[in-house]
Amino acid sequence: MATSEVVQERIQISLAAGSLSEERIAYLERLVSQARSAAAVFTQFTQEDVDRIVKAMALAGLDQAQHLARLAVEETKLGVMEDKVIKNMVATEFVYNYIKDKRTVGVIREFPERNLVEVAEPIGVIFSITPITNPTSTVLFKCIMAIKTRNAVIFSPHPNAWRCCSEAVKIMYETALKHGAPEGVFACLESHTLLDNAYLMRHKDVGLIDATGGPGAVKAAYSSGKPALGVGPGNTPVYLEKTADVNTAVTDIILSKTFDNGTICASEQTAVIDDEIYDFVLKEFAELGAHICNEKETRLLARTVIDPETGFMQPMAVGQKAADIARLAGLSVKPGTKLLIAPIHGVGREHPLSVEKLFPVLAVYRAKSVDEALRVCVDVNHAGGLGHTAVIFSRDDEVIRRFGELMNAGRILVNSPGSVGAVGGVYNDLAPTFSFGCGTGGGNSTTDNVNIYHYLNIKRVARRTQAHMWFRVPNQIYFNLNAVENVRQFPSLSTIIITNPALEKFGHVDIVRRYIPEGTHVHVSVIPDAEPEIKVVMQGVEALNFYKADQIIALGGGSVIDASKIMKLKYESPDADLEELAAPFLDLRKRVVQYPTEKTNRARLIAISTTSGTGSEVTPFAVLTDKARGRKVTLADYSLTPDVAIVDPQFVMSMPKGLTADTGIDCLTHALEAAVSSYASAYTDCNAMQAIRMAFKYLPIAYENPRDEEARLMMHNAACIAAMAFANASVGVNHALAHAFGARFGVAHGRANALMLPHVIAYNASVPTKFLPSPYQKGYIAHKKYATIADLLGLGGHTIDEKVKNLVVATEQLLDQLAFPRSIAELGISKEEFERVMPELTKLAFDDPSWRSNPRMPLMSELAELFWKAYHGRGPAKVAGANEQRTSLQQSA
Amino acid sequence: MIAVWVKIDEGRVVQALQEAGEKLDNVEGEAALDFSSVRRIDPVALSALEVFVDIADDKGVKVLLRGVNVGVYKVLKLVKLASRFSFVS
Predict the structure, then answer these.
(1) CB under 8 Å to A426, separation ≥6 — which residues?
(2) Given 3.40.50.1400, 2.30.30.100, 3.40.50.1970, 3.40.50.720, which CATH number is that of A474-651?
(3) In the annotation, is A265 catalytic?
(4) Could you say which residues from 15 to 74 on chain B have a Cβ atom under 8 Å away from some Cβ of chain A?
(5) pLDDT for A638-693, tens place per residue?
(6) Choices 3.40.50.2300, 3.40.605.10, 3.40.50.150, 3.60.9.10: CATH for A2-21+39-231
(7) SS3 labels along A418-441
(8) Which CATH class is domain A236-429?
(9) A737 falls in which pLDDT band (50, 70, 90)?
(10) Residue from the list B46, B72, B74 with its beta carbon closest to the beta carbon of A37
(11) Is any Cβ of chain B less than 8 angstroms from the Cβ of A764?
């Protein structure tokens, strides 16, 4: 390695001095130009065109396999001719078999379920460095891959393998041309120099460098600034675990280590053998033709084949026969000795034979335990073999699993030979290759067996997906007068009624009790009429545990029902961490935190609403007050949705006017926001639109005449219907503003909503400054939906703008009719104070998750602007004609 | 003004371009090459086209390619020749 790196440094220096002659540069430019033209022309070829050429090339390679193998051995003086024939055949036949049915032109793969299509784009010109150890097979392999992927290649073979490689390129090129490939598709550097490599590696028209060879070449490729496949050396450990089939293991290792005299870099370098089988394994090796070195022989061998200065193998030993190496080392071995086995006692510089040895010398290590064996394998892996290959022979799945986890190797081969196994397609289903990606451990960009897909730019055509949507509400919803009677159909041994003091006083609890089946133990838990605190919730959970409740009846407004939802959650899943469950999220279904599914208790939740606004009886939301930290925690998950909702107007007949107005506007805001939400669907639209119609018509009546049963019934149903819409489509920026403002100034939620509502409609109906990404909607349609609502309400208008304006006016008139304050200023909040808190308000509103489904993404400045509009309210002129329009509205609705 | 108009047949692109090149002497204005019958272009034709546009440039003649299919157009882009022509459908 050190030598190669020195050479690379020299190249850089020479380049800096402009060492290449003008003639040489012109020659290299010509090669690139021809390759570039060929690659460009190649883009016009079809799959059938390239498949025809590839088949012819594979046949030509097979035909010339012996010729090329002989040339390679003659020129390089490395390896075994017969094995090189096999390599050439694998590089053609096996590679062809692997790629023949694979698409590499146009659409190569389709994933209809993901709306994805992969399309191939050739790289163009590839500059390829090929090694001395597998010269012709690597060229054959790369030529076939290049044609299959419509690329042109300029080859730079190892200088000592130039003749055989250029012959291989010639055979491939002539065959390809004969079958229609473009001229110039392959070229082989003549009288190659390392300077040429450096020049081509940096050439602007070279798209990819594919460097198979020593670490110097690989490093130079990666240092060039070009995309590169650099595939370098290894140091393969092989672990013979005590359960291994020893005969198979020994045979495979000899086969692998002697194949082409060990020149494949994936071949085994150090065998780590369990103590229990060590002697038997060595005996088997000896019986099958290996020579087991003694201590002295091992020292002699190490001195001969390992460079004492660099610690790396001596080049003269690479690819030589075992007997020849033994002779060089002065060892006396039997004729026909296949492999030299050298026992070592550790890994590292003090144990020279523990490094990569591309010749038939195998180090062996006796391990006293599995842990020791694995540790030594890790040492070998880290001694120059990171990312390459590791081998294990074992029948113990657990040991195999541990080995796989510990080895940093692109190929971890089980019960098969390293060299032939790593090549792929013979002993396993790995892609046949002559380039082993070694991942980042080996300074490479891939751990794969390099194959056709590394010679392609794979483009992905991603069609817009139709996002899955949902509509989730309680399993059972009972509505209209006396719907509470349905409580009787739910059997229970122990029921807890959660309610507030006022409802208990009004006798509402007694009404409910009347319908609970006889024999049920009933306990009433009265909680304060305020947003639930953690303390209150936990007291409720204690009661549920004490009475072993199997049913919870939440009788009340949003606070009671929200508290009951959280009690149920904590009762069923005591380990649920409310803090964690309240973590922010963008998409309910992709949230980081998942609600518990394992339950230690189970209780049915029946929600009976006693206000006509929040709709909590059908929603998956619950708000909790954390007084200790002075904040609210919003929980959202469909598992919080009550099992049964009862919408019975008898419980709202006594609602005071103010509460009727506040909750009624909350209902209308839910419906209006759900209608224009980016999560809106046909399923939510029908609910939202109906709720809007009902609210516009019946809210003023319920407000003016609280005893009007029809109006009460309609508003109670409207609240539930609106909630079904926003439970699935969510709300919008109106709620974000109202939450922030209401929390900061202690203003009731409905009232806070009312202050924002007309301004938010106008804001959402205007062209957004920023669009909010949403896979659920196509295009910006909020203004059209408002216009549809205006049409539904019979508000008139010819254009969308007119209709939106009419909707704003109608909303303002409704608010007037309900005697809402029409500006924040009217609440007695000074301009100075409002200005002072504005940064905090906008921050709170922006942090609020409600706007995530708003049709336009609010900027902080826009939130502030909306707050100021609400502060000032509308101008006095805008109320003109309100009464007339109100009358017309009620008639049409 | 179009001074030279040549229809290019796929079977004889190189010869057609050579003939068109000869017509560029003493010409003013534009040379139009009709590629509508050329489905594919090969490296030799590509070289001939480059030679033709070199000659045209020397003589100050603009070269207009008509009916170039998108596959051939992409080839011209890849070899960075496209910018030397005007294209009409």
Answers:
(1) A90, A94, A420, A432
(2) 3.40.50.1970
(3) yes
(4) 39-44, 46-47, 71-72, 74
(5) 999 999 999 999 999 999 999 999 999 999 999 999 999 999 999 999 999 999 99
(6) 3.40.605.10
(7) HHHHHHCCCCCCCCCCCCECCCHH
(8) alpha beta
(9) very high
(10) B46
(11) no
